[in-house]
Design a protein that fits this description.
mainly alpha; about 75% helix; about 0% strand; elongated
């Protein structure tokens, strides 16, 4: 089997071929975003194998399927949907990247400051779940980054909190404050990392 001399070009060609149902401008935007992400990743990690960089981006069919789902029926190759509907559909999933990051971090801070207030704990959980959903449906990160972000910013802290609550440990102890501090550092570090690797 013949090996390509330019795997990046082959990868982008595959995306372009799979994205034939997208409008030309959206297809070009998708290709430009992917090319920029590849270029930035290679600049940040000069020793990275190009195959690993492309694998982190994900399968071209999955990327295109996500783009088609975000485009909605008005942009799926049909031109009769009207410009207003198509624009609204194209904006779906394009929540500003700060929104999920803030929703994953700030509610925990509120819950840590008000540990005895049931409403603060409830709303903290709700907001963090919504933040995780927005992160998973965002166009600003690839699948690996989303999975890592949800694990570090939502799943791991939730498991730690559940273990702490089930142990009946007192809330006002030094250990509780230290646990909250460690969790906040984890959430802040994860949010900072996601902000740095985001795609605009």
């Amino acid at each position: 089997m013949k090996t390509s001399a330019d795997p990046v070009r082959d990868y982008l060609s595959t995306v372009e071929r799979e994205a034939a149902a997208l409008p030309a401008d959206r297809r070009q935007e998708l290709l430009a975003d992917l090319a920029e992400h590849i270029e930035v990743t290679r600049a940040e990690r000069p020793g990275a194998v190009i195959g690993e960089v492309l694998a982190e981006l994900g399968d071209p069919r999955t990327i295109v399927a996500t783009a088609l789902a975000e485009a909605g029926p008005g942009e799926g190759g049909e031109s009769g949907g009207g410009r207003g509907g198509a624009g609204a559909a194209g904006r779906r999933g394009k929540v500003h990247p700060l929104v999920p990051l803030l929703m994953l971090t700030l509610p925990f801070l509120l819950a840590a400051v008000l540990p005895d207030v049931g409403a603060a704990q409830f709303f903290s959980t709700v907001f963090r779940v919504v933040g995780a959903v927005l992160l998973c449906t965002s166009v600003h990160w690839v699948a690996v980054q989303k999975t890592t972000g949800v694990l570090l910013a939502a799943v791991l802290p939730t498991v730690a909190i559940s273990i702490w609550v089930s142990s009946d440990a007192p809330l006002g102890t030094t250990a509780a404050h230290l646990a909250n501090l460690v969790t906040l550092v984890l959430l802040g570090g994860t949010a900072a990392w996601l902000w740095r690797v985001r795609r605009d």
